[in-house]
Amino acid sequence: LDEAMLCYAGGADYVGVGPVFATSSKMDAGPAGGLDLVRTIAAKIPLPIIAIGGVDEENAAHVLRAGARGIAVISAVCCRPDPKASTAALNKVLQFCLMGKNG
After folding, report:
1. What strands, in cross-sheet order, belong to the sheet with 70-72?
2. Is the Cβ–Cβ distance between 71 and 38 less than 8 Å?
3. Does residue 27 carry a pLDDT above 80?
4. Per-residue pLDDT tens for 34-73?
5. For the chain, how many structural domains are there in total?
6. Is the pLDDT of residue 25 over 90?
7. Which end of the chain is more exposed for a tag (fewer CB within 10 A), N or C?
8. Domain range holding 23?
């Protein structure tokens, strides 16, 4: 939260928040903050939050509902057998949650 507040005070356009969940793509990411981290920062800082760290098609909707305006992923696409299908699944979640599209 302190880092996010500094970013806001410094004129940032958005804040990257994470790791939200455990991640294997960055060994020095630190402990996962969970959805509470996203909720806390979203409630305190009027900037868009981009959530990173362990976000995938299974939990992305929860992350967005917690207050994130976007997600950043690595393993959820690059480490999957079918990156194109994984990207499509994530895109569908984003459309449902952020744009209210059904289908």
Report:
1. 15-17, 49-52, 70-72
2. no
3. no
4. 999 999 999 999 999 999 999 999 999 999 999 999 999 9
5. 1
6. no
7. C
8. 2-99
Residues in the chain: 103
Burial label, 80 (beta-carbon count in 10 A; 0-12, 13-18, 19+): middle
The CATH number given to whatever domain includes residue 64 is 3.20.20.70
Q: How confident is the model over 91-97, as a mean pLDDT?
A: 92
CB neighbour list of residue 4: distance below 8 Å, 6 or more residues apart: 15, 17, 41, 44, 45, 47
Angle between helices 2-9 and 34-44 (to 10 degrees): 30
Six-digit token pair at 52?
């990173």
CA–CA dist 39, 17 (Å, integer): 10
